[in-house]
Amino acid sequence: MSDQRGEHVPHGAHGRRPTRAEKWAAFKESPFLPAIVLVFILAAAAGLFAGSYTSTMAKPAPRHIPTAVVGSLDAPQEKAFAAGMEKALNASLRLTGYGTYGEALEAVEEQREFAILQPRGRGVELDVAAASGASVAQLLGESGLKVGKAVGVDVRLKDIKPLQEGDPRGLALFYISLAAVIIGFVGAIQLSVHARALNPAERTAFTVVYALLGGFAIAAVVDWWLGALDLPFVESWLILALTMFTSGMVFTMFNTLIGRWAMIPTWGLMVLLGNPSSGGAVSWPLLPSALGHIGRWLPPGGSVNAQHTAVYFGGHQHLFPFLVLAGWSVLASTVFWVWRHRHPGGREAAPAHAEAAG
Fold first, then answer.
1. Do 331 and 350 contact (CB within 8 A), yes or no?
2. Phi and psi at residue 117, in whole multiples of 5°?
3. Which residues contact 242 (CB under 8 A, 6 or more apart)?
4. Residues 253, 332 contacting (CB under 8 angstroms)
């Protein structure tokens, strides 16, 4: 319709301005709402990611540090040294007596103790184990020398379990485990984006394949190419592969349960909580008590613990970290399989030949 001047006059539904409710409905259906939500989620994740590591690494607080004692600390200078160490560390050494040095050393190999303290002449000998925890060994060593000087006790310091030359700060194992965790769920994300039509069995199979290849690549680069670590190759490879598979299936589980926002709980569980509490960057005696206990039950902690024992304490491997990784894998895979119809991927079954012919 036109007026006398020939201008178009809008009429009906096409001519009125949309209401606020209609604008909001249209906005919710547009790509702008999830994009805006992601902007804030990513900003928050960046801050929390930095904060989770800084809070544990910047100010590690010693709690009870397991320390083996050979013989008895009955002499006045020995008692003065032990009391001085507790005061210097602002915590109690958890002293456990052993009849012989060999028994105490076996406890260190089993990772039940982090140091050995024994009388030596008119002084004491403090044996630390950097491989048990570089941060704990450094703290004990520095504190021991200062306390010995302050109380007039001669302290002989010895590292009975040094780190490998390519791992001077004890962080290399943490980094390769971190790589396996992150690439594990990033791989699952990429399968969801670029291979969306995979059915559940195919998706699980491809997760196994990229976990095996990815774990092999990490171990080969670190050991064979860079020579940074001397790994027990097959064991380290399989630990990394199990870590990657577990991480990938954890994302797949959350993707099944909550769809496109699955990255939020995956990132929170595996990165914000799991990695700082794994004991890789900061040894568990220096972590807050609750965080140290929780971390051992999460996939990153299981991976770091299994890898750490494989590399530095061969022959003393524990079953628990493998049960942690296997438990999360089974849980995630079971949830995915039971509720696979809710997963945003997959494809329709091909019609039967007879039906197509008809």
1. no
2. -120, 130
3. 211, 215, 303, 322, 325, 326, 329
4. yes
Comparing C-alpha atoms, which of 235, 241, 248 is closest to residue 308? 235
pTM of the model: 0.84
Contacts of residue 317, Cβ cutoff 8 Å, sequence gap at least 6: 235, 306, 309, 310
What is the spatial distance between Cα 98 and Cα 109, in angstroms, rounded to a whole number?
Answer: 14
For residues 180 and 240, the answer to whether their CB atoms sit within 8 Å is yes
Q: Which two tokens stand for residue 191?
A: 């399968």
pLDDT in tens, 30-70: 777 777 876 877 677 677 666 655 655 555 666 788 899 88
Task: Specify the amino acid at residue 186.
Answer: V
Residue where the block lists tokens 């030949």: 353
Task: Report which of 293, 306, 307, 302 is spatially closest to residue 331, judged by C-alpha positions.
Answer: 302
Q: b or e along 325-351 (b: 16 or more beta carbons within 10 Å of the residue's beta carbon)?
A: beebbeebbebbeeebeebebeeeeee
pLDDT digits (tens, 9 = 90+) for 264-314: 999 999 998 898 888 888 888 787 777 778 999 999 999 999 999 999 998
The tokens for 186 are: 């990033």
CB–CB of 150/184 below 8 Å? Answer: no
Show the tokens assigned to 285.
């005696």
Tokens standing for residue 204: 């699980």
